[in-house]
Amino acid sequence: MTIHRDYTGSKMGMWIFLFTEILLFGGLFVIYAAYHHRYPEEFHHASKALDTAMGTVNTVVLITSSLFVAMAVAALRRAEDARARLLVVLTIAFAGVFLVIKYFEWTAKFHHGIYPGSAELAATHAPGEIVFYSLYFAMTGLHAVHVIVGMGLLGFILARMRAGAVNSTDFVFLENGGLYWHLVDLIWIYLFPLFYLIA
Amino acid sequence: MHAHEEGHHPPSYRLLIGVWGALMVLTAVTVWVAQVPLGFLNVVAAMAVATCKALLVTLFFMHLKDENWTFKGMVLLVFVILAIFIGFTFFDTAYR
Known about the structure:
The structure holds two protein chains of two kinds.
Chain A: H1 7-38, H2 40-47, H3 52-77, H4 81-111, H5 119-124, H6 127-162, H7 172-197
Helix pairs in contact in A: 1-6, 1-7, 2-6, 3-4, 3-7, 4-6, 6-7
Chain B: H1 13-35, H2 40-61, H3 69-93
């Protein structure tokens, strides 16, 4: 019995989905760019309140997790199944570390009265700064949702690998999961300088 | 049957780790450049470094370099659409 598998079609479908993701975040980047143009001083000032060290550590964590999933795909294609599974576990673990750091970062902001709809924020900050923080929470928040979805997706793929359904001859599911994870990394690569470094 | 569909050999671990190293260096560069006061050029520098990193991720981690021109053309098209999206917005907002 011949099982028909269309790898090119599967990958193309995944890429087309990623394009919709790029344009989803693209819309938010347009809003960011337009308001940065309108309130350059306020954006500059508001950005100083963000913790560059935490942002940098999170960049390193996310890029490293991206490396792990890329290596997992390479390992699975070489039929190094155990190594591939370990690399997927590491990818998910690093995604978790990213979210924990994000949690501490957001909690610190909340303590300073910086959160969406905060009366303290409205009373003590210029409109441009409020827009900056709104975009910060909306964009990093939507990104964090993608991190959570990615962890779930990779966890499911890991279960399929354990079951032997995703293996060295049928690896496109892991490959597509990897593509999704790289996109999450790609978006962070732009979010990091825009929010943490423009000060 | 699907041997040729799988395309190229998987990338070597050494290549992937090398790309990771380059991404780490670029992260250090972008953090460092942000400390130097260059005015508007800071934004340009940050976006230029981010785009270099994005290229490394798409070409090597997402192995776009091994895909055929249909894939490459599609990705390029999306970024052209995004550029039009951002560019045309500025035709409006920049001249108000």
